[in-house]
Amino acid sequence: MRTIHSLKELRTILRGYRRQDKTIGLVPTMGNLHEGHISLVRKAAESADVVVTTIFVNPMQFGANEDLDKYPRTLVEDQEKLEAAGNTLVFAPPVEEIYPEGLAQQTKVIVPEVSDGHCGASRPGHFEGVATVVTMLFNMVQPDLAVFGEKDFQQLAVIRKMTRDLFMPVEIIGAPTIREDDGLAKSSRNGYLSAEERKIAPVVFRTLEATAEKLADGRTDFHTLEGEAEQSLSAAGLRPDYFNIVNSLTLKPASPDDHELTILVAAFLGTTRLIDNLSVTR
Ligand SMILES: Nc1ncnc2c1ncn2[C@@H]1O[C@H](COP(=O)(O)OP(=O)(O)OP(=O)(O)O)[C@@H](O)[C@H]1O
Ligand SMILES: CC(C)(CO)[C@@H](O)C(=O)[O-]
Ligand code: BAL
């Protein structure tokens, strides 16, 4: 497995693979890899000859008061995990390689509607930053397929729409959320939690499960369910950002005759913002 940092090198190596008719799978990440990321690499390797994992903490998707500076950067450990998972190539560019003219000068990609609520409402400009950098990575790597986690449910919906609307020739594959034994979704940001907070954190998934059960029983009083769930989160010591029951495809508020529902949650535990989701078919 090779790790490279320049676009020039990336293009040269990928040209070689294409000449050999090898299919290319892309796994975009921000690094500090855990089993969730590794499951994406394995999934990409099932369908592509070559897997390119990118590690780039994208400044454009962070708000001014967010954790860009303290986001964990652990390239050496990440490389070891990727090598063991059968990854082919790691592309870990410095910021200047991706945004040579700076963020203010950068052409951007906006994905309307699906970017608007939930995390898009709480993190203005976030999905613009995600859509822009993912477009750039698609253009740099020109993959046949790209794998994204369902843990970031809205992000996956944004990328699916963007790919469809802009006729990008990339197959988008979603991969299920990998969890700790107590249900907490694996996330790089879990590393910010204190030991005390880590004990509380699984309540996020337990609240999702409790609400999913009520939805599966046929409940349609969505606002009541959302309110009850927010109360459970608050009672456990979290500060809910949102808890929304939505149509799984549009991400708009659920209506009683929807069959595919998804519960989206974001909540602060201390200063750490946790997100998770759970889908229900009924
Ligand atoms: N627990 C998980 N299971 C499956 N996929 C995951 C999981 N966590 C992250 N991913 C996916 O890995 C890719 C890279 O995500 P990212 O590097 O932001 O990881 P993260 O752990 O979610 O970090 P953060 O804490 O910043 O949200 C995304 O497609 C994301 O959905
Ligand atoms: C897709 C992504 C790598 C774009 O920076 C990021 O949003 C992430 O890690 O989910
Ligand atoms: N996993 C999504 C990347 C972010 O929170 O910025």
Automatic annotation (TrEMBL):
Pathway: Cofactor biosynthesis; (R)-pantothenate biosynthesis; (R)-pantothenate from (R)-pantoate and beta-alanine: step 1/1
Active site (record annotation): H37
Coiled coil feature spans: none
Sites where the protein binds beta-alanine: Q61
First-tier enzyme category under EC: ligase
Subcellular location: Cytoplasm
Binding, (R)-pantoate: Q61, Q155
Superkingdom of the organism of origin: Bacteria
Record GO terms (molecular function): ATP binding; pantoate-beta-alanine ligase activity
Single Gene Ontology BP annotation: pantothenate biosynthetic process
Stored CDD domains: PanC
Residues annotated as binding ATP: 30-37, 149-152, 178, 186-189
Reaction(s) catalysed (UniProt annotation): (R)-pantoate + beta-alanine + ATP = (R)-pantothenate + AMP + diphosphate + H(+)
One protein family per Pfam: Pantoate_ligase
Record key words, sorted: ATP-binding, Cytoplasm, Ligase, Nucleotide-binding, Pantothenate biosynthesis
Functional summary from the UniProt entry: Catalyzes the condensation of pantoate with beta-alanine in an ATP-dependent reaction via a pantoyl-adenylate intermediate.
Complex and partners: Homodimer.
UniProt miscellaneous comment: The reaction proceeds by a bi uni uni bi ping pong mechanism.
Protein name as annotated: Pantothenate synthetase
Source organism per UniProt: Marinobacter pelagius
